[in-house]
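Case study.
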Amino acid sequence: MTNVLVCIKRVPDAAGEVLLTADEQALDARFVGFTVSAHENCAVELAVRIGDATVLSLGPADTVEQLRGALGVGAKAAVLIEADPVGFGPADIAREIAAVVKAHEAEGKTYDLILLGNDAADTGDFQVGIRLAYELGRPVVNGVRTVEVPEDGAGGVATARGDGIDGVETYEVPLPAVVTVLEGGVEPRYPTITGRMKAKKTPIETVEPRNQPRGPERVRLTLPPAQPSTVDVLGEGPDAAAAVVDLLQRLGVAR
Amino acid sequence: MILVFVETAADSATEVSLETVTFARSLAERPESTLAGPVHALVVGALPEKVADELGAYGVAEVHHAVGDAFSAYAGAAWAAAVDAVRGDAVAVLAPGTPRGMEVLAHLGARLDVAMAANVVGIGATDPLVVIRQVQGGAVLEEMRLPEQPALLTVAGHAVEATPAAAPGAAVVREHSPEVAAADLLARVVSTEPAGPDESGALTSARVVVGAGRGAGGVDGFDGVIELAELLDGALGVSRVVTSLGWRPHHEQIGQTGSRIAPEVYIPCGISGAIQHWAGCSSSKTIVAINTDENAPMVTKATYAVIGDMAEVVPAINAEIRKRRS
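After joint prediction, the assembly is written out as follows.
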């Protein structure tokens, strides 16, 4: 069986209005709740399809909520690196994940494949997976939608596909490897009742960060100034069609 | 010297690459800054004939061209090895905020163990450098320090307008054949299937995009918007909810986890305009929203709007266009 580690991040579920914390270092998620980045839901789905999945996250104690979500859809084990992620930059996070991978390896469990999302929905750093690959000395495929692994992953070659500039690109990469995933290649499943029950009973391995973080180089967060609405309402209902076509002709996009 | 990783398409540099060169110039032209100096460019693999002259017009002094068997098929690590080999004493390395630009620069950041800022839209300060970048899909800005050199940053698409330089650069082409380690070729593209005519390439380059969201109502609710897209020689794009519900394929998705578009005209129909979607369409020049809710963010942020049901308004627009043509 292929051992897969899938890394997820607890992020604010900020579909509507966004607020910042008083120290301007993070989003204030008190009123919006938390979720997992969309890309990572697909990474979890790929992980449970490919083999024995272990889910990992660096975050506060409440991150067990997101880890249990992944356990509920089929991950077999979970690891929480318990820390306030606000103080961690992408290089720090990669180093902490690598430390867990090496510790598990020392205990006899090698991850043939490590999956991450292409970028986090909140900090959007686009680099944790790549830095992790360098920490571990493994090859990395970035931004793909599907990954396939031969029956027994160890020593095999994974095939990954994603959209490139000129079309759908196929990568072949020897395992063990790191792959970062974009949403859209697979449909994440919903947890079953039995899955949820099982998830509640699965112990979560909780560890402390092993290194002093260098930090994210963040000075502060700001909200872009709200732009007053300047919308020009052309009309209501189908009667507005003539005004729309006048406009499109004026803009030179309708003949 | 500031080095810019440039991507090419067909016979020219990509628009986002030219924007990145423009951004690099604005950094390099700051007097009394440690970043002041010439702007160089790097093209890996094929260098289309006109590209050097084009980059010269945008102020590039030297165009580094990395050649060799290692660059016959894309490998992020190999591309980064090329950047590392030619960067010399570059004080900053910039790349377009495209998937490939992000990837190459992240590799470089890991190789050099320096910070990298993704999706930069502005400069907060120099010496030490503080950049302003988009986080949370563009809903929030982060001021981020880049104290080390080379400073690594990708420039968000359409953060600046690509502008030729007042004084063109010489754009002297220098060929390099960097050594690429076998380990850097382990994760490499082995084949590419050309995208179908209906796939997302058309979406990101279209002059007109017609969008559809939950307001389409179901899998059968797209005939009107598809016809409107055809009448305007445009492309169809959809919101995330549409692909999540399986109404349309993912490659049509616009947004933070889909395509980022920048058309002349975007016509979002039945799309409320959540942050996830706005992240992908905010660079549109003119937005004409069609929505039943006059308070929907998509409507209040639009340039023009029609308040109404897309199922009624869109067919009426299509009929009006056809009527004027006949």
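Observations recorded in class. Residues 158 and 205 of chain B are 13 Å apart (CA to CA). The domain at 201-325 of chain B is CATH 3.40.50.1220 (Rossmann fold). We will return to this complex in the next lecture.
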